[in-house]
Every structure is written in C-alpha cells, then in structure tokens.
Amino acid sequence: xxxxxRFLKSVTTRTAKFxxxxxxxxxxxxxxxxxxxxxxxxxxxxxxxxxxxxxxxxAAAGCTYLQLDDVAFAYLCDPKIRDTCRKxxxxxxLLPGRYARTIREALKDKPAGMTIAMHTCRGNFKSAxxxxxxxxxxxxxxxxxxxxxxxMEFDSSRAGGFEPLRFVxxxxxxxxxxxxxxxxxxxxxxxxxxxxxxxxKYVALEKLCLSPxxxxxxxxxxxxLTADEQWRKLSLVVETASEVWK
Length: 246
Prior knowledge:
Elements: H1 2-10, E1 17-21, H2 40-60, E2 65-69, H3 72-75, H4 79-87, H5 95-106, E3 115-120, H6 139-142, E4 149-153, E5 173-179, H7 189-199, E6 208-212, H8 227-244
Parallel strand pairs: 1-2, 2-3, 3-4, 4-5, 5-6
C-alpha cells in the first residue's frame, strides 16, 4: 500500500493521511482457530515486527499521518461477539490487552514527527452495523495502545456514554465521531455542542475534536445517503468545530 500512499502524496499539498488495518484485524474475525502458529506469542511478535517494518516503509515514503483501522476493540464490547470469541478458542476478557500490547510493540520504533491514530467503529457496510455496546469493557486496554489519537464512534446509543473516556491519558487526543455517516438526517449544531460539552467532563476540550462517526463508504456500495448529503455533513463538522474551538 506504500505505492498508493505515494500517489496520494503526489496529488495534494495538504498532509496526506493514510489508513491501514490494525494488527488486531489479523486475529479478530477467525480468532485462535484461524491462526496457523502453534505459539501465539510468536504470532503476535511476528505481527508487531511486520507492522514496525510497514510503518518504517511509510515513513520513508514521506508519511507523517498514519491511521490504524481497528474495529476489534468496539466489537469486543458486544456480548454476541464475545461469545463468538469463546467459540473461536479465545478469552474475550484477555483480547483487548493482547491487542493493545501488540500495537504498542508495533509502534516502538515510530519515527519522530509521525502521528499515528486509531479508528474504531461497530461496522459500516451499506449503513448497517455489526456490534453494539459501550466502550467500558475495553477502554482501559484500548487507551493504553500507545497511539496519538483515537477516532471513536459516538453517533448513536450503540456506542454508550462518554464515561469510558476517563481512562484517556492526558497527552492523547480523542476525535468524537458524533455526526453519523450512515444516515441522511443532518444533526443539529446545538445538539453536537452539548455532546462535546459532555465529553469535555472526561477529556480536556483542547484534546477533543469532531468528525463523522466513520467513513461515508467502507466499500464501493456506499452508505444510504447521497454525495450532497455527505458534503452537508462535512460542512456541519467544519462549522461546528470552528464555533467550539475558536
């Protein structure tokens, strides 16, 4: 994917942000049953080493903003997903810590000047979702993963309240995904401001940001809204952010 990044960087004068799957995505769907390694510690060590090499390659290509796409933490908040983990031979109580340790190992040689963020959501295929449940079961582990910023889904009751943000280290940034990319209905500015104010009880306002809850299209099928509706939502994010963070 480094060639794709080089192309992106060649066609913009802005910071080129690039997204790759998180290390946890090598494991979550199939679980222990889908891993050919006899020794899982060896598997996770190799995964971290592969990611260190990838991060180094992106840095050499001029990437200064890399995002890990990670649904694992949010999925592990759902009792149904946790039951599936058990069937796959894993303990869902241990997986968040294991994933976080691997991400920390992957970031160990992160170059100075590179920002690495994590995005986590509960599914985003044609405006559908897979998982439900607040972040409480995974928050402590997820916020120990060592990334610089967390893009978090908070657009509906599926994501629970802001209380798990109390575990966020003071030097990290949280990007509140309050504007839904799944529905055409445009959120109200005042309602967004109120929710940002609620989140600021747990994370300092200067360490908060605003964004859509996920991408507007995780696949070529797109979500159930038009391009014009998408642009209105993005304009709403910019306008609201400009008012909140003057």
